[in-house]
Request: fold
Amino acid sequence: MKLFNIINYKNLQPCGELTKRSRLFTGYGCNIKCKFCFYKNEKHIDIKPLIYQQLEQGKKYGILDWDISGGEPTILPYWFDLLKDMKSMGFRNIACISNGYKFAGTDFLYKSVECGLNEILLSIHGSYESLHDSMTDVDGSFFKIQRALDEISKMFHRPKLRINIVVTKLNYHDLPNIIKMVTKHDPIAVNFLPFRIENSATNESAVKYSEIVKKINKAIILLEDYNYITNHNQIKIAVRYIPPCLFRHLDFRKYVAGYLQRVFDEYEWDEYTIRKFENARFNKDIPDLDCETDKWKLQIDALNKSIRNVAGHTTKCLKCKYFKVCDGIWKSYADLWGIDEFEPIEGEKTECILLN
Reply:
């Protein structure tokens, strides 16, 4: 059975407050080479002027929060100056997506926070040394990220901590143990990111969604238990890009965060801006953003283009209650695994993008 671009999402209406966060791309340079990384074979070039163009355009548009992304942003020679400049521009939340290597150093961590960093999003790939190190392809990387977690937790004025887990064939069995490890450090958000074949990432890390969902469900139960017990610190849970039909348990579908859902998540990115900021990846000037048109119209136009470029639906999907608010099945995934595991959840069709 084939995939088709059946839906035009432009008729959907917003059902929440749009995120005011965007990604700040800083270049491909990195100090490790994760096996599953999209960009590990990309040559790094210094794009400092384009970094500041993104910030200037984002500020005009109304972006308040940033996820500084690479590569590994902390290896930039002007890292501390960048943080100071972002702080002086008045941005609300300044976050860094990081492998934790540099934050394992107390002085570097404290100086980063002093300069304006108030969120850290760490990428954790295993609960034990041999697994995490095998995925990063760097001996000692597990020790470094453990040290970073410990140092962040010790801080009196600590930055908010978020966790990314790229779910691959190597580590999906370990998800519950990873959750047990990271909840000791009081994160505010945990994202499960199923591996995607994209750019230089190869299918050696791929695993079927129907297999990883079993472990994601167990990990979610642990997170929900943690939220219930602690209450004071509610962890935001998100499962990216897996269609809701694979979560047969109704209560777990609310954590699905495809393209459509993520723009209503305060910790995720505005789709319109990151499409415009893609120029930075190709060393091209950032265009002026449209600051006059209704933001939802800009958002839904961008979402429509992004989704139709990477995903589609089967004719079976027409029966599903989530048909109108589901990104569909990624084309690269269908090419590798087929589409037999996706079965519609029948019922009255919803037009509420958030799957509560």
Observations:
- Residues 15-310 form a domain with the TIM Barrel fold (CATH 3.20.20.70).
